[in-house]
Design brief:
By secondary structure, the protein is mainly alpha-helical. It has one domain (7-85). Helix content is 76%, strand content 0%.
Length: 88
């Protein structure tokens, strides 16, 4: 018997694939030695991230994707961790 995917399930699959693609493109950009190719990968990554955000916004608007907001403690902890590991 064939399983039927609804709009919500199809959108979730597409969103997940965009996330996977963004991770792979990020790794590729970090390892790319050709400047022009790296820039093209970064442009593609930017497009992928914009598409992913659009999908997220649409799913959120439809009530299909409801992330749990981070607590103040979680946000503060993350900011602290980022400050420790990132030097500007």
């Amino acid at each position: 018997m064939e399983a039927h995917l609804g709009d919500k399930e199809m959108m979730q699959i597409i969103l997940d694939k965009h996330k996977e693609c963004a991770v792979k493109l990020t790794r590729l950009a970090m390892e790319c030695t050709n400047f022009n190719l790296r820039n093209e990968v970064l442009r593609t990554l930017d497009m992928c991230l914009r598409h992913q955000h659009h999908l997220f916004e649409l799913m959120h608007h439809m009530g299909w994707y409801q992330p749990t907001p981070a607590s103040v403690e979680e946000t503060s902890g993350l900011k602290s961790t980022i400050r420790q590991h990132v030097t500007v």
